[in-house]
Amino acid sequence: LQSLYNYGARKVMVNPLGLIGCTPNAIALYGKNKTICVGDMNNAAQRFNEGLESLLDQLNTNLTDAKFITTGPSALASLYTGNLCFKFTIKGCCKVNNVGQCIPDKAPSKNRNTHLFWDSFHPTEAANIIGALIAY
């Protein structure tokens, strides 16, 4: 972030970590008791995001001609908790291989706009559009 500032950036939006415990991979590997997300992973992401906010506050204090912001994780949480007007599934929209990525030559779901994830890790275009709208 300091390098961006040194190159002339004065308005910077930094994405926080998302709810990494809610990815299809995390749920498949570490989910228990039929919970929708892995709480320990999300707690770790929350601690990181708190540090990120603190860092941005320091940058804003020290670099008064710049503005560093974050959307905050709670804004993106609405994608997972269903607070939006849309119905999404957390399950990826393609069949995945043993490392959680889409299997080449396998057709993905025809209704990809209702999926938050393309594979076990990567958000779909629909999720990215909503995230961008929340950030904007």
TrEMBL record:
Q: What is its main location?
A: secreted
Q: Where in the cell is it found?
A: Secreted
Q: Which GO CC terms are listed, alphabetically?
A: extracellular region
UniProt keywords (A-Z) are: Hydrolase, Lipid degradation, Lipid metabolism, Secreted, Signal
An example GO biological process term is: lipid catabolic process
InterPro entries xref list:
GDSL, GDSL_esterase/lipase, SGNH_hydro_sf
Pfam families per the record? Answer: Lipase_GDSL
Source organism's superkingdom?
Eukaryota
**KW Kinase (keyword) present:** no
Give one GO molecular function term: hydrolase activity, acting on ester bonds
This one is known as Lipase_GDSL domain-containing protein
From which source organism is this entry?
Answer: Cephalotus follicularis
